[in-house]
Amino acid sequence: MGSLTEAPATGASPAEDAGNRRGDILRAAGKLFREKGYKATTIRDIAAAVNMRSGSPFYHFKTKHDMLLAVAIDGIAAIHDAVVAAAQAEPEPRSRFRAMIHAHLDALLNPEGRDFAAVVIRECGFLDPEAWAQVQTHKDSYEVLWSRTLDELAAAGILKGDMHITRLLLLGAMNWSTHWYHPGGSRSPEDIARQLCALVLSDEKARYKK
Amino acid sequence: MGSLTEAPATGASPAEDAGNRRGDILRAAGKLFREKGYKATTIRDIAAAVNMRSGSPFYHFKTKHDMLLAVAIDGIAAIHDAVVAAAQAEPEPRSRFRAMIHAHLDALLNPEGRDFAAVVIRECGFLDPEAWAQVQTHKDSYEVLWSRTLDELAAAGILKGDMHITRLLLLGAMNWSTHWYHPGGSRSPEDIARQLCALVLSDEKARYKK
DNA sequence: CCTACCGATCGGTAGG
DNA sequence: CCTACCGATCGGTAGG
To answer: N or C: which end of chain B has fewer CB within 10 A?
Structure first.
């Protein structure tokens, strides 16, 4: 998984990086989709953002819808990869949970990738059923990561109750941060991650740490 | 506060309820805005939903934008009123917190009002600056309710850390439920509220309750 | 990748 | 509240 607009998704020569216009378009589209929404973003907006004329983006993407799909797929891939990497480094459930929250928020809020991530989260409703199913498959496999760790935490008595609802609430708390987080503000993604952990882990261990 | 489309916002005769078309339009607009988004919803969609021709909604609202504003204002008013009522009945911070979570989720997810509530939460970005400021004023006064109770919980040692971030995370967890909650599903708004409380309140009291 | 353009749709209006 | 319609915009295409 993971491509984030490096190269032709089709089998063209990957060596030729000379001005990756497809990637430029995707990044511009991601930014505009996040800022104004998919419907309110115009092909002309996107073209202007990469110094093209209005018809030219269609040389790289068949439709505007295809751009949304490409942004969404790259978006989940980025989140998925970041969280998998963070999770694999931590065998102990509680630390793994912390690392995953950290990684998810970072993927969601850091300057690179935040456009893609926000689009997955907020604009997927505009995909047609087939494309949506494709994205949903990726989302499902991502959520399994969370379910596994949450179930372990429940088994250890660290969390209680319905882990299905808990997962949705946790991801919601994080995903919603795309609505209020401002890059330059006084709270960093790390601050947010720490506070979320403090909120849901009673964490005797940390309190009584030697 | 609170009107939820009963009657003319202007000073017309409130007695004459004979076919409240303005309210019909607002409810239809709210539903469509939530389902398809503001931009993707057409005046013609709204008109069709209330059996009018495409030009007629403009007899009741000057612009589509004004419909969004009206829906948004009614939306926050409904949430605000519900949470105030719930909070006033509970002097003890912990029970008040539970009641507020319950009330917020119920306002957000119950069949009446969920369209309005979801629109406040998701579509306000399409308001122009002046209208947005108007809505923001209402939102601010709503968030004060939460800040007060969260600060009390922090003072009592029940919650820890940055209550500003905590408030945003909590409201995020709840507001996000508009994306995944399905009215007929196996989890009720009450289930969600209970689970959220269990997640963030360690709640010795309940565990050891006689 | 640009020029030139089409067909459809959309918010909104006039006039009743 | 309807009929009829306008001006603008938009996604997309042809032809180079």
So the answer is: C
